[in-house]
Amino acid sequence: MGTGVCFPKGFVAAAVAAGLKASGSKDLALVVNQGALPGAAAVFTSNRVVAEPVKFSQAQMQNGVVTHVLLNSGNANACTGEQGRKDVQACVSALSRSADVSQAKIAVCSTGVIGEYLDTEAVTRAIPTLVSDLSASGAANAASAIMTTDTIPKQVELEVDGWRIGGMAKGAGMLAPALATMLCVITTDAVIDSDTLDSALGRAVQMSFNRLDTDGCMSTNDTVIVLASGESGITPDETAFGAALEQACTKLAKMLRDDAEGAEHFVNITVSGASSETAAVEVARAVSRSNLVKTAIFGNDPNWGRILSQIGTVPSWVAPFDVGKVNVSINGVMICKNGGIGKPKEALDLAASKEVAIEIDLGAGSSGATVYTTDLTHAYVHENSAYTS
């Protein structure tokens, strides 16, 4: 039985070392939908600076049903202009010839350094081997090949009432809403059309990857693609499918968070008692982006004043609340009660756990949301000061 993207029926994958990474590690992957009833949908970065592979794949998703996803690490092919566009087309043409597939069915994803030209000759030279290596056992290699600063590959498998969802993702830095710095391919053998996939993916991404915010930095290359093969022969209820897809995306989002660059604490910021879901997300996001909050958590210091002051930065028209009704708990200890001093911070030992749960009750309504983040460490600063590939 396959893992990750090959866990559902009807999918094969492969990976090779094309020479894009100085380490010589695998850096080129391919996922192929062999199903008789293919469907596809995608969500891309909302950054106004968009990589050439994203531009290409956005158009592909509008023009037909994608069945082949070519992914490379080691180079983002972003901010590369006309040459970058030609490089994407050269890779697509090479894959079309080798796999005997229409160019209209190919999407391309890239990740790595921004502002450097892709070694297209290396990619096109490796594509025939990549195609010949396709198999139902190739998912693990594909998940490893798309890694950049990741320390572990990230895969997910779910089975629901006889149909399956699988997936892989990469990302460890530049993780912020409006996707995160990530590539993700999700597969399912459910019988489901592209329009339904698109609707379900939009909601799933909103509740998972768009709730991930480790460092407040948005990328140029973010892509989430979902492919359906129909090979299970089962048409699931749309609500059930949407819930399973959201579960798979959330699992992958937490894997990205838990592998974030330099992180020592993994933080869930849950806001309740908000006037709306939007208000809850904005409050949680404001706290997640505070370097003062993040460094306090790194130092195992439950400095709740930093949390409360960050809550106050959210405009009242976005999140109305009375500070005199706000409660803040950390790992179950209500350290701030009604906007003032709660239990003494000595009652809380953050050093005892890598998991930190910050719970904020605004006392202003019945809506809530959770944002996933990390602390901010010396290791994060060091890694990103030295990162060039």
Q: Alpha-carbon distance between the termini?
A: 34 Å
Q: Average pLDDT across residues?
A: 89
- The helical percent reads 25-40%
Query: What is the gyration radius calculated from CA atoms?
Result: 22 Å
Number of strands: 15
Structural classification: alpha+beta
What is the molecular shape?
globular
* Number of helices, counting only DSSP H or I runs of 4 residues or more: 10
Secondary structure elements and their pairing?
Blueprint: E1 11-16, E2 28-33, E3 39-44, H1 52-63, E4 68-72, H2 81-99, E5 106-110, H3 120-132, H4 139-145, E6 154-160, E7 163-170, E8 183-188, H5 194-207, E9 223-228, H6 238-258, E10 266-274, H7 277-288, H8 291-298, H9 304-311, E11 327-330, E12 333-337, E13 340-341, E14 355-361, E15 367-374, H10 378-386
Parallel strand pairs: 4-5, 8-9, 10-14
Antiparallel strand pairs: 1-2, 2-4, 3-9, 6-7, 7-8, 10-15, 11-12, 11-14, 12-13
